[in-house]
Design brief:
The structure is a homotetramer of 153-residue chains. By secondary structure, chain A is an alpha+beta fold. Chain A is built from 3 helices and 6 strands, in the order ααββαββββ. A 6-stranded antiparallel beta sheet of chain A has the order 1-2-4-5-6-3, covered by helices on one side. In chain A, β1 and β2 form a beta hairpin. Chain A is globular.
């Protein structure tokens, strides 16, 4: 689907919000692409991100799904809006066994209040990409509450 | 609901698996309680776990929901089984604004192959506990594949 | 949880809306109980409601889950609001093999815009009640759009 | 995605199972297309299928989503297997306001035990198709229990 962003600044707005998320730095996540209604985040393998079998932890996989969904939605929201995840549902389809996690989210519907998103998370092993997880997410747009003003002090 | 564990060792089994999860150490998660069909995990606030507004990141909240669900289920599984999350759905109901995140999961049904779980995540602020998120999760029991043998080398 | 309804009329409002749903009549659903934040619906077995094995169809089970959730939420909404289901997630845990389907929904959180609900659907066989399905649902309150004014002409 | 069916009979198997579902007859659902990993079902508008505003009831929409998912999965399963829905999550994005409901499901992953599916339900009004709902579903394959032998007597 093709979307027209309501804010000319949509890319900068997403990048700034992403860089305020200290958890992204902790897990070494990279914001790789932002388009209107689309977001892509990569997380390279690190032993500190693993579950009991040495694979990417489901918590990291869901973080990537949730964050790409949130920013895919945020890219379509008004200049002075902030975004919150209402809920998401994630299916884990293959173990996160590989050197890189790639999350990609596409907006299905951008409503006045709610935005619906679908996400895929791929695991790259020896350069080969495989579907690792898929999510469906509901986001809410909070109008007149700019993202940067919500900072917890 | 009351469950009878199939492994006398259920608590030790969960603790060992939890401590093999390096991601739990990274986010400083504590395994606080394990009962048959129940698991509780705490995560104290740390600025490295925050999203753009300075609250606990949804990825941390979902990690806690997923992990308590997985271990609540694992506590009921056979000695030589391992557990995987098939899918989960999480509603975020209040911002993770507080000093401590508490995840609690209870098994709804422990089937032969699949186990269904409900989870609540609470946020504690100034000592007051508030419902932050709720999840419903499907787990699968992999028989004859002991958790510790699956370690990625 | 205890809730205080915003409309003194909450029970009548739910009953009238329920009786406008012609699909409820088709499947012979009975609105059995409405309390603030709670709703219960029963559907007696009928061969026309079955799937390929002769059990209650998952579509009927999800109808009961969705409708009890919607009306549990609606009971807490303002006099002039209507309710829509944003999304729901349903786990089917046992076949709908029995003479009566009982749906019960309880509100977890009644927010300004969104309301979150948990539902259980039980199957009664030879008088014995068994958990058949469990759902978690997100509802939205549409203010100043009374339910009865939305009728499609 | 392209899938190779394990049963040469896959189409006949789905059609026979569909026609054993008496609930499909009650709601006048038509099985319009079955391909390996794909299923499409149509339901024409009928006043008996409506909710309180006169639109298709969410229960009918979720029936269509669930059934197309189940049969998309069933088309890939072994000759002697039957299929059950483990769980599904459905987002309702537009009211079911129109003359025809069209459900389409595509398999994302066909695993040994579990199969994951994505579904879209469209509403057609005055000949124009609009996305009405989207689902993500987990199915389980029950091997050596042929669908037709499970009939409830």
């Amino acid at each position: 689907m093709k979307f027209t962003p309501k804010s000319a600044n949509y890319k900068k707005k997403v990048e700034e919000s992403f860089h305020r998320q200290k958890f992204m730095k902790l897990i070494n996540a990279k914001l790789v692409d932002v388009q209107p209604g689309y977001c892509e985040i990569h997380v390279p393998y690190d032993v500190n991100l693993t579950q009991q079998h040495g694979f990417f932890h489901a918590g990291v996989i869901s973080t990537v799904a949730d964050n790409t969904a949130g920013y895919a939605g945020f890219s379509l929201m008004e200049e002075n809006s902030s975004v919150l995840t209402v809920e998401f549902k994630l299916n884990l389809m293959s173990p996160g066994d590989g050197e890189l996690l790639i999350g990609k989210s596409n907006i299905l519907k951008n409503g006045k209040t709610l935005t619906i998103c679908r996400s895929e998370v791929f695991i790259v092993k020896d350069g080969k990409e495989k579907l690792c997880a898929a999510a469906q997410t509901t986001l809410i747009e909070l109008k007149n509450s700019p993202d940067k003003n919500l900072i917890n002090k």
